[in-house]
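Inverse folding, one chain.
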């Protein structure tokens, strides 16, 4: 089956989407699927991308073409609005219209995030053109993009009490900043958590910890995606500093992005033009200039700060639509504010499965996650974040209907605990998504035939006895990371059965089951070897047996120890790949 892997889009999360698209492109089971990369640009055009460009570091490295880049600024294509009507270079790929999709793929795998990408917009387009797609349908997607609506609906399901306030843009009046801050401190207390309600990947998230009006104003503006630039600040910068400032505006992980609206009036598309505009305006005025994203939020969500253990918990489905909550992961933050950079930069956080609490409390987290999944009309897959307070209260927020999909993302780590590799998890997403599209009653029999054919292929592929390819690595984080990459690649190729073998510091060789290849550091692997698996992980894997049996077959979840000369010589015959 040809799988159109959709990534990019107009949202601020497009680079995270690119990372997810790479995962699907590289890790889809090549014995079942042919990945077809489909890059969605900021103008909403669909481009069947040249495969070599999937290995670019970021979207701006290949699009727009370097011939269009000027003034040495790094920009996205929306900085060149005239290109929206020009043909796409053949070196980039082939421009597709939606009515041509069926000529190139049978299924759309959505690795897209944010507005227009996981809010039902692209899902509705695909339904119109009878293309089955991955993830929840229209209703679940619409709920999943709106943090304000989510809070209200989650509270209806589990009766959770969490103080919040919605601030509209027309209420954000400069002369009343101090009054508003006083009211919010009284209502919500400090620290204040401020969120842009339609963003993900921790973009548009700020925390005001101290009783500082300046910090409050800056945080609110950040979540409205606007900047109040004072004349004295601009004039204090030298030429290089000014260029760096407008470049930061263009960077989606730290700026507001282009096009920029200046003082609610003039639209500026390019950093070079903004640089000229600011220089000219501050010559004739000595005031504050407001720079706002053309896709600014119209309201922001303010919440009380929750003390407690932060967790993230995925939920998937059985074939009959019933939910299965995966083991929750605890997020251990190494920084004060878990914003975009903290979330995606190495060393900013660690993950622990399950949450460091009682078995009963972990089971309770799973129970409320499954209830919210079902009652909010979400299907196929979701990742829901939350807090476990010191009093034992569970508070949920931010359902993600298209979770981040790098190979080390929460959802893959949690699905590994029930026995699925990244490749098998991706197959699950595709298969279960087709099943859920059938429930919509659109193009029903064509989808039934598509599902029947895929099920037959999965069964055949699962039952083929594959030759073993061993992966031997020692007790270092570098070698463990390389072993994980090799393990994922071999699973995706579908030709060999990869067997990871860890050479421990005790001199013994350990044949490891699948979950051990999804940890962050080698010390985590060594800890599991000595301590054994948590009862919640064993219990959840048992509940998931119907799923894992279908997608992976019989799973060997035991550690096998080789500690004598004869057995070591035997397993060395496997070692086609040795990490050193």
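Residues assigned per position:
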């Amino acid at each position: 089956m040809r799988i159109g892997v959709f990534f990019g889009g107009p949202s601020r999360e497009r680079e995270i989407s690119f990372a997810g698209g790479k995962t699907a492109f590289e890790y889809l089971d090549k014995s079942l699927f042919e990945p077809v990369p489909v890059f969605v640009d900021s103008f909403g055009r669909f481009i069947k991308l040249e495969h070599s460009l999937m290995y670019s570091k970021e979207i701006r490295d290949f699009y727009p073409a370097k011939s269009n880049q000027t003034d040495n600024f790094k920009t996205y294509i929306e900085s060149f609005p005239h290109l929206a009507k020009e043909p796409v270079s053949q070196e980039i790929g082939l421009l597709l219209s939606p009515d041509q999709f069926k000529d190139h793929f049978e299924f759309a795998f959505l690795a897209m995030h944010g507005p227009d990408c996981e809010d039902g917009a692209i899902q509705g387009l695909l339904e119109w053109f009878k293309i089955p797609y991955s993830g929840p349908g229209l209703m679940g997607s619409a709920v999943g993009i709106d943090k304000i609506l989510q809070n209200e609906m989650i509270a209806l399901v589990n009766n959770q009490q969490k103080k919040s306030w919605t601030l509209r843009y027309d209420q954000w009046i400069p002369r009343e900043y101090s009054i508003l801050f006083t009211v919010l401190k009284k209502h919500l207390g400090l620290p204040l958590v401020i969120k842009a309600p339609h963003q993900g990947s921790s973009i548009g998230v700020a925390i005001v910890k101290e009783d500082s009006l300046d910090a409050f104003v800056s945080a609110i503006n950040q979540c409205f995606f606007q900047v109040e630039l004072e004349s004295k600040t601009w004039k204090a910068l030298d030429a290089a500093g000014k260029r760096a400032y407008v470049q930061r505006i263009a960077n989606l992980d730290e700026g507001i992005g282009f096009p920029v609206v200046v003082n609610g009036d003039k639209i500026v598309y390019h950093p070079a033009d903004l640089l000229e505009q600011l220089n000219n305006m501050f010559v004739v005025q000595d005031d504050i200039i407001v720079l706002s994203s053309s896709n600014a939020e119209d309201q922001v969500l303010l919440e009380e700060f929750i003390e407690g253990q932060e967790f993230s918990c995925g939920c998937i489905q059985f074939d009959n639509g019933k939910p299965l909550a995966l083991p929750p992961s605890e997020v251990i933050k190494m920084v004060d504010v878990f914003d975009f950079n903290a979330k995606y930069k190495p060393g900013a956080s660690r993950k622990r499965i399950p949450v460091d609490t009682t078995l009963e409390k972990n089971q309770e987290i799973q129970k409320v996650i499954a209830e919210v999944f079902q009652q909010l009309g979400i299907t196929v897959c979701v990742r829901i974040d939350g807090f476990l307070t010191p009093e034992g209260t569970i508070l949920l927020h931010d359902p993600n209907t298209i979770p981040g999909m790098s190979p080390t993302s929460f959802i893959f780590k949690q699905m590994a605990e029930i026995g699925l590799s990244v490749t098998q998890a991706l197959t699950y997403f595709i298969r279960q998504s087709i099943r859920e599209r059938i429930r919509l009653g659109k193009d029903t029999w064509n989808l039934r035939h598509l599902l029947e054919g895929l099920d037959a292929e999965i069964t055949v592929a699962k039952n083929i006895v594959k030759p073993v390819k061993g992966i031997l690595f020692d007790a270092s984080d570098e070698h463990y990371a390389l072993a994980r990459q090799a393990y994922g690649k071999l699973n995706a190729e579908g030709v060999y059965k990869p067997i990871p073998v860890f050479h421990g510091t005790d001199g013994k060789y350990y044949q490891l089951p699948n979950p051990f290849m999804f940890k962050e550091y080698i010390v985590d692997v060594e800890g599991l070897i000595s301590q054994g698996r948590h009862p919640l992980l064993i219990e959840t894997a048992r509940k998931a047996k119907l799923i894992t049996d279908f997608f992976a077959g019989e799973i060997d979840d035991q550690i096998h120890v080789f500690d004598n000369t004869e057995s070591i010589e035997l397993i060395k015959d496997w070692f086609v790949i040795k990490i050193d």
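The CA atoms of residues 13 and 113 lie 6 Å apart. The two ends are 37 Å apart (CA to CA).
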